[in-house]
Amino acid sequence: MALLIRLLGDFNKKKSSLLQQKLKQILSNSSEHCCLVDLATIHSINNYGLVTLVTLHRIAKKNNCNLYLINLNDTVKYYLELTGLDRKFNIKQNVKNVNYTQLVN
């Protein structure tokens, strides 16, 4: 089983902070070793989104959890490549059926 974070809508400061808090709470109370961040519904990403992804990566790593970004569209992939973050993350495309233990919006 994996922890699935499915992002909906646009990133903003409030959503970013809430997402980080939820991930810290979930990982501190579980033994998950795999965390998937599904970006299928995110059509664009700004600095809050990029900083949030980096922070989620840091939180996961601190909790011995592998973080994967899945189902990126071309725009999001472009910004990750532009900033060099594509080399920091494990990226998987076309991930469909995922068994998950928690859904975070």
UniProtKB/TrEMBL annotation:
Gene3D superfamilies: STAS domain (3.30.750.24). Residues 1-105 form the STAS domain. CDD domains: STAS_anti-anti-sigma_factors. InterPro entries: STAS_dom (IPR002645), STAS_dom_sf (IPR036513). This is Anti-sigma factor antagonist. It comes from Okeania hirsuta.
